[in-house]
Amino acid sequence: MSRHDEARLQDIIEAVDAIRSHLSRGDLRDGMVYDAVRVRLIEIGEAVKAIEPTLLDSAPDVPWKEIARMRDHLAHRYFDTDHAIVQDVVDNDLAPTSSTRELSAPPAEPSTERRLRRWFGPLEHG
Description:
Blueprint: H1 3-25, H2 31-50, H3 53-57, H4 64-76, H5 83-92, H6 101-104, H7 112-120
Helix pairs in contact: 1-2, 2-4
């Protein structure tokens, strides 16, 4: 994995940690929390777009294209974003019990795919 990809993965980890921190202060009904979470979801999507496609291909269970499309929608169609969709992402797509720090740790035994899945959790998007 390149240094660039490691840095983007670290960006994702930090964005997820920030989302969790924001949500510890309130829920998405609070406009400031909603805006902060939305910006961090945009950062996650932007980081995904910058990661080498072969690395993304090694974790096919993660909906990379949907993450990137979510970023585009949040950035360009912010005025008609359904709060329920953002809430669903927060509730279901950020594995709440995983250790995000393990994702960026050098792979000792687990494959990159396994580390990513541990962070993202089981995503059942159709």
